[in-house]
Specification:
Blueprint lengths: L3 H24 L1 H15 L7 H13 L1 H4 L3 H17 L1 H13 L5 H15 L7 H13 L4 H9 L3
Helix pairs in contact: 2-5, 2-6, 2-7, 2-8, 3-7, 5-6, 7-8, 8-9
């Protein structure tokens, strides 16, 4: 049997861990929304929502520590809402989603991560069409980076 002090210490560690996760989750929700905006813009660029693209989003959500702290169902709900908005009010939704991305223009690491997400989603079906490349270029424009240079680096595995 443990003493009250030992139990209190374990409880404190558990509470502190939960606090760390919650702080990461709530403090980084704008990045989650920007990531899902990137996914929506790139998934729907060719006019269809492909299964390979959806699987790629799931893989991204599971692989990235920065996104993994969020409930994956919430992330997918956000993505679905963005896709629906792009279908029903494309111009308005484009502006709103670009705004979510734009806030990371001055943050090199976040911008790089968002561009990697875009590239992974676009290349998920191994068939990059011009509309998808234009979507990538628009994301690069919002992040104030050179689209051709970034695309070349991504194509080389960077």
């Amino acid at each position: 049997m443990t003493s009250d002090g030992q139990r209190w210490g374990k409880d404190l560690v558990n509470i502190l861990e939960k606090l760390r996760v919650e702080t990461a989750r709530y403090g980084d929700e704008p990045f989650l929304k920007a990531a899902m905006a990137v996914c929506a813009l790139t998934i729907l660029a060719d006019g269809t929502v492909g299964l390979s693209e959806r699987y790629q989003v799931d893989a991204i959500l599971g692989a990235m520590d920065r996104l993994r702290v969020h409930n994956p169902h919430k992330a997918v709900d956000i993505l679905d809402d963005y896709i629906e908005a792009l279908r029903t009010e494309p111009e308005k939704a484009q502006d709103v989603l670009q705004g979510k991305i734009l806030r990371y223009a001055g943050d090199f690491k976040s911008a790089r991560t968002l561009l990697r997400i875009a590239y992974l989603v676009i290349s998920a079906d191994d068939d990059v069409v011009e509309a998808e490349r234009r979507a990538f270029d628009q994301i690069c424009l919002a992040l104030t980076v050179n689209a051709d240079e970034i695309w070349a680096k991504m194509s080389e595995g960077g």
